[in-house]
Amino acid sequence: MKPIIFDVDTGIDDALAMAYALNSPELELLGFTTCFGNVPVEEATRNTFVVLEMVGKDVPVYEGADQTFKRGMKPEWARMVHGDDGLGNTLKTEPAYRASNGSAVDFIIEQVKKRPNEITILAVGPLTNVALAIEKAPEIIPLIKDVVIMGGAVYVPGNVTPYGEANIVADPEAAEHVFSSGLSVTLVGLDVTMETLLPLSKVNEWRKIDNEAARFFADMTEHYIGAYESFYPGIGGCALHDPLAVGVVIDPSFVQTESVKVSVVTEGEEMGNTVGVKEGGPIIRVCTEVEAERFLDHFLSRVL
Ligand code: BDR
Ligand code: CA
Question: Which residue range or ranges hold the Inosine/uridine-preferring nucleoside hydrolase domain (predicted)?
């Protein structure tokens, strides 16, 4: 089993990624850490507990950053895509408050020191928690096995601006800090995630399963597909961004990678752009191709 710390900003595709990971026997989920992003961090923590309950698993949740790494910014939330509650407006009543199990940054540092060279950090939100952890304890950098990140758009356009992908635009300085730190990084960006589309027909099959969890995932994902159809008319589904990062941890052969240095534009019109260059700094594995159908089958066989 691969020990994982799973960093989330729980919106809809984070929730799908969580379910996929929680149902995958290859992964040992040590804990979830939460970050602002799709929603404010308190809501990301709440949503993480909601998804754990739906999947019927108990894994500790550690709340993390409520603002960006350097400039104390709280970027715009993605309620247009993920709904007012971040879960496709599926929360009919506010769930009972559950406190975080502790600090995300301290949890990351403590776990990595306890299990040197074993832990993969799977980060599918802004990179703030990872940046804060390696800034506070730089000695953990060589002890982290890999950081698999859903983020960036190296050879394709962005999704929140013509250049930038949401997780990187939300905190470009955190991303730059992580990419230039010497950490082992695998970048699962829009270059590959936009090819992994989940069509509504598959989601409708979940409706044949008569239980609360299946209804929750179907309603939420239908909302997400609706948002995709409004932003990209005729696209035929929603992109499985965060689930693909989980898939890459389970089976790296879903993707092909290229090793390049990636720098992040932190100012101006191109803010959040992830630029791949051949030489001159720490090398990152950028995913460039994906076996989308094989991945989709695998995801569907596990998610519910
Ligand atoms: C990423 O942005 C978020 O809205 C999604 O959860 C995903 O992590 C896609 O750009
Ligand atoms: Ca996310």
Answer: 4-297
Which parts of the chain sit beneath pLDDT 50?
A: none
Contacts of 177 (CB under 8 A, 6+ apart): 69, 127, 131, 134, 135
Classify strands 61-63 and 27-34 as parallel, antiparallel or unpaired. parallel
At 267 the pLDDT is 93
End-to-end CA distance of the chain: 20
* Separation CA 75–CA 171 (nearest Å): 8
Ligand 1 in reach of 78 Cβ (< 6 A): yes
Q: Evaluate: CB of 11 within 6 angstroms of ligand 1.
A: yes
If you measure from the C-alpha of residue 197 to the centroid of ligand 1, how many angstroms do you get, rounded to a whole number? 14
Closest of 254, 301, 299, 252 to residue 16, by C-alpha: 299
Domains and CATH numbers, the chain: 2-302 (3.90.245.10)
| Cα–Cα distances in angstroms (integers) from residue 4 to residues 31, 40, 73, 118, 250, in the given order | 7, 23, 28, 9, 11
- pLDDT score for 100: 86
Q: How far apart are CA 172 and CA 264, in angstroms?
A: 6
In the prediction, which pLDDT does 71 show? 87
